[in-house]
Amino acid sequence: MADKLVHLIITRQDTPDSTPYKEEFKVPYRPNMNVISALMEIQRNPVNAQGQKTKPVIWESNCLEEVCGACSMVINGKPRQACSALVDKLEQPIRIEPMSTFPVQRDLSVDRSRMFDALKRVKAWIPIDGTYDLGPGPRMPEVDRQWAYELSKCMTCGVCLEACPNVNEKSPFIGPFAISQVRLFNQHPTGAMNKHERLEALMGEGGIAECGNSQNCVQACPKGIPLTTSIAHMNKETNKYALKRFFFS
Amino acid sequence: MANSQEFVSRRIHSLLGLVPIGLFLLVHLVANYSATRGAEAFNSTVTFMESLPILIVLEFVFIYIPLLFHAIYGIYIAFQAKSNVGNFGYLRNHLFLWQRISGIITLIFVAWHVWQTRIQIAMGTEFNYDLMASILSNPAMVVFYVIGVLAAVFHFSNGIWSFLVHWGITVGPRSQRLASYFTLVIFVVVSFIGIRAITAFIQ
């Protein structure tokens, strides 16, 4: 079995501004390998398919169980987590690229800051601090908690942005995930106390109106979050809020 | 208060597509359909339309101004997208792309069609069955008209689907799937009406 090899074609980039190039690798196969362990083989022995010594490939990863979102990359054309991309289930040669929606830092490592900026913009948190003890908040109905939990599985991995045809350099769209997070925090009984702030943010530049309903996000989401349902629901909420604001305030 | 100009423009764009533009498309194609009962019937429909009071005001308020807004803003939307059906070959993603393509085709067709009919009338040509019949005596024009009508009807039908999502009427996947079937039926029925009317002018 020692001579069985995994063939990888990796799109690399040395600095944030340099031109990307492709490099091929053939690493020894082991049973149950994932893309991360194939990349670790390159790290261990940085020699490309032509037998030349090269720079080891850079990537990001943390949890290795598809909950942190750090190792997202485009594998055989689809954005997904490298840790849950099993070599046995992938067509070879395995084509690995960084997610082009984000600025590439080096090789497969991208800067996902725009997602965290988007979360700040839509205020995706629940303010609980006061100058005195505010006491316990209202209880959340169990039925709501159950579906809200599904939305809370979002790990800011960037796959929905990479899949969305309306997230690109010509558009300011913040991305599907942020809209779903507004739904999550507006549903929370304490979070609902500030829901107008999040709705206003969604109605701002690059907000919910930029969605063009290609529905790629819901297909691509590794956590199975009902993103398009969240978007349609927030469409209704922002419309209601906009009409109310126009007629009654 | 956040700057929600873009949001409002998009919502107006979505609303205008259905009312009045979509409604106008239906009225227009149904009126054309009277040609299937002969030149007489079509000419009397035309006479009825031309007899409407303050017609020029109706045309501007319910057709030209909404259509221009929808078209110009639509071009901006269409060219903002970066299509990726190669890697994401899902049905909705294809329809997303075709909504933009059909919008551009419809715009080209409508511009040509308005020049051939409404502007000629404004310059003194009398509009009747024979004018359309002479336009459609050219096989290339027939092809152009069929493509134009199909593009417009597709854009309208698929636009209803998007309208239902943009206005939060179809929220969950089940209602959105049902809306897909519903808009498919609209596409088939309205396309038939539109194309049957074109063939009625071919002698």
TrEMBL record, chain A:
Top-level taxon: Bacteria
Gene3D superfamilies given in the database record: 3.10.20.30, Alpha-helical ferredoxin (1.10.1060.10)
Limits of the 4Fe-4S ferredoxin-type domain: 145-173
Cofactors: [3Fe-4S] cluster; [2Fe-2S] cluster; [4Fe-4S] cluster
EC nos: 1.3.5.1
GO molecular function: 2 iron, 2 sulfur cluster binding; 3 iron, 4 sulfur cluster binding; 4 iron, 4 sulfur cluster binding; electron transfer activity; metal ion binding; succinate dehydrogenase (quinone) activity
Keyword Transferase: no
GO aspect biological process, one term: respiratory electron transport chain
Keywords of the record: 2Fe-2S, 3Fe-4S, 4Fe-4S, Iron, Iron-sulfur, Metal-binding, Oxidoreductase, Tricarboxylic acid cycle
Family: Belongs to the succinate dehydrogenase/fumarate reductase iron-sulfur protein family.
PANTHER family for the chain: SUCCINATE DEHYDROGENASE [UBIQUINONE] IRON-SULFUR SUBUNIT, MITOCHONDRIAL, SUCCINATE DEHYDROGENASE IRON-SULFUR PROTEIN
Descriptive protein name: succinate dehydrogenase
UniProtKB/TrEMBL annotation, chain B:
Residues binding heme, per UniProt: H28, H70, H113, H155
Annotated localization: Membrane
The UniProt record lists the keyword Transmembrane: yes
Primary localization class, coarse: membrane
GO molecular function, one term: metal ion binding
Keyword Transport recorded: no
Record-annotated membrane-spanning stretches: 12-31, 51-76, 97-115, 135-157, 178-202
Pfam families per UniProt: Sdh_cyt (PF01127)
Keywords: Heme, Iron, Membrane, Metal-binding, Transmembrane, Transmembrane helix
GO CC terms: membrane
InterPro entries reported for this sequence: Cytochrome_b-558, SdhC_prok, SQR/QFR_C/D, Succ_DH_cyt_b558_Firmicute, SuccDH_FuR_B_TM-su
NCBIfam families membership: sdhC_b558_fam (TIGR02046)
Record protein name field: Succinate dehydrogenase / fumarate reductase cytochrome b subunit
Species annotation: Brevibacillus fulvus
